[in-house]
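re: ur question from the group chat, yeah i did fold both. here u go
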Amino acid sequence: MKPPLPPLSAAALASLLAARAAAAELTPEDLATYGLTLDQFQSVRRSESPADFGGLPSQDETDQLWLDAASFEYDVATSHASDKASTSPGFHPYLVCSMSPGLSGNQREGQVNAMFKDTPGVESSHFYANPNLYINNDTLSCGTLRAFNDTIAKVYVANPDAKEWMKVNPLHPSMKMAEYTVDTMETWFDEEEVADDVVSISGGGAPNDNQIRVQVLGLHMLLCPGVQWFDEDQDQDMEDISDDQIAEEVKNFVTENGGETAAEVSFYHHRVGGMDGPDALYTERMALWNAHLANVTSWTKDDGSNACLDTVIADHMLWIVKDKVLEVTAGLSFKEATLLMEEMGYEQWQMENCLAYMTYALALSPQVCTLEPRTRVRTLCKDGTSDLSKCPPPAVEDPNSARGRAGSLWRFVASMAGAALLSVTL
């Protein structure tokens, strides 16, 4: 560990207190106006945001709903300031865009990072930048950053001109989801598509004749900056977080507390559930996502158990972190999932609801920055089960056995007879 930092001088302390006081004057509603509009964001990343925020009677209402969502996310970050764990919603992911003219992407990135580092009250452990840019062109450079509590407010207060060229948006679920996420999942859930794509895949390329290859739908996510290396003790000493720990942390966020942990940080849940007032606007898509969430939380029994969260998601999904990516895929084949569904007494819609909840909850996780569905190929037994030990390759005859030697002799004699016949014919 590094030695403790020296105490602040009187001047530095005064500057810090002034910055904190000024930051308190910037409300979440103020900060929301410093971000990209919905249309501007869609030019940076093709996402589910137009579908989630669209369909209202006027553009003004859509724009206001977009700002309301950003304000909510700022509130989430500051309301979890007492939790400084790596999993805390207080460490919120943001999209940070620079429109400084005449600069390269690297120069813009350096300008933004320097501004954060030089802001009073903002420590290196309070923000984690990603060197990979979402977009980089002559007019705009955007990347992701994870910042703690009111860090964004402090930076804008200390750099009042920054709002003219720096746009910051808290990332919420629709911004993280690639635009085809819902369409892909709905197609996959359709019974006819499932039968074609999952059950009746050709066995071509399978390791042996007792096995087949099938397509499996999974979720592919990029982890946010700082998730894999984090100042756990807040002592300016970054520590590597193991892949297994990260996978477990994200899974816990999705499954713990009967789904209420995810619900607490969901703007859609608050808006559709009436917590923002009876007249608060929301869209049909928001209501649909909230229905998935509300259904799952309602399935929690008095003893705290929940078949969707405990059995389907926690026990039968594969959670794998590699490099900067989290992959979540089914651990069961379609046939096995169908049998499990019958054992649980689930109907088809309940299983689909459970998986839709999982998708939305993953996008709510403060450790996830992007999400998209992807298919991968998986090997199964020909009967559709996943235990490959029950469908091993056919036994290969030992050439040294008596039967093997006899077979080899017969093949040798047969080949010689064929050669003799060939010579006579010629």
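okk and heres the other one u asked abt
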Amino acid sequence: MHQCLCVSEILEAIFYFVFDDQRRYRLCSHLSLPDLIPSAETRDRRSIFRLVLTCRAFPHLALNVLYSHLRNFWPLILPSRPSRLHHTPELFRPLVLASRIQILSQPCEDGTAYPSFFACAQKQAPLFPNLRSLAWGDCSFTCIPVLKLLLPTVEILSLDLDLSSSFCNAIIPALPTSAPRLKALEIKGSLFMTDKNPSEIESLLISYPDGLTELSLTSHWDYVPSTVLNVIAPWPSLRSLTLKLGLESIPTTPLHIVPQPFPALTDLHISSDDTLDLLISFLRTFRILKCDSSHITFPNLKTIHFNAQGCSTANTWSQFLTSLAHTNTYLEHIIITEQDDYECLPRSSFDFRLLLAHPSLARLSILFLSPGRTSTITLTDADIITLARTCRHLQSWLGVAEYRRIIACFE
């Protein structure tokens, strides 16, 4: 074995590179907003297990990587012999495995695992001392004590909520104290379907005066109201924001946030049942894009990702590209997609050349524009040459093949 592989830091970096199998979700990443915690299904467990069996120098580090991200409690509570199916505390795997876990996902209720969990929690507290990311989808009343035991070390939390008021009342208001290290929060499901004013989510966000670094609020039904955006806009350290936008997300009164809303924002991911007009309105309301001759600087923004269900006119696309060309932001990722399959508007086209009118695109590495069926992009050979010369860092998730597909989507 090469001497370099005797250095544990190098070996661990290689194992994590193998474990983090980006190919499993790159193909469709532009069609959906990113999750705060990567899915456990994107991990290449089979390859890591093979590394465990390769040589005697690999098992310790390889097992650390293999158990760093668990999709549920089952790997810990399964008996060592498959023929034994009784889940009792005595069959819980050695507690040393629990110390390896950094990311844990519990997608649904699992009453058989919780008794074993409590049995070991009495022997070692915290049971998962290195747990940093937790994705929780069980909203049953019985899971509340288990979740509270996991929260003290968590820095990134993803909750998939339903209409269970008992769960929300027990967990949401107590998060600032039960998860004191929390830096990033993702809440899915039923967000604002409540009669309370302010809602539980809004009250929670108000309790973080210094804000979080990452926030994701997504739902199939609920959009984020303007009152919530007014709460988080002054946060000084918010770098990533993911949300579902609706007509009532846009504030109707002038903003009085000095000097700039979302001052540290680098990544903006938005979904909407509406059209590109709503994104333009949002960006201008929060002074991310210029709507007049004033010089507004938003230097930190690197990513604009917008998925729309509506179909925008060619004039709207032209307006958006012109706004991007005149911003002072050096964007690195622009992903705009429309998924409406109905031809609700007359066919029209818009000029791609509008986007090439400003040198602020010099750092652009990912460009994906996919208008609805009624709009097409006029792209000439000269535009392609200008794009290649202006955006020297333009690349994609799949190299040359993906680059050709990006160009093809413009035609």
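fwiw on the second one: The chain has a mean pLDDT of 78. The longest helix spans residues 8-19. idk if thats what u expected
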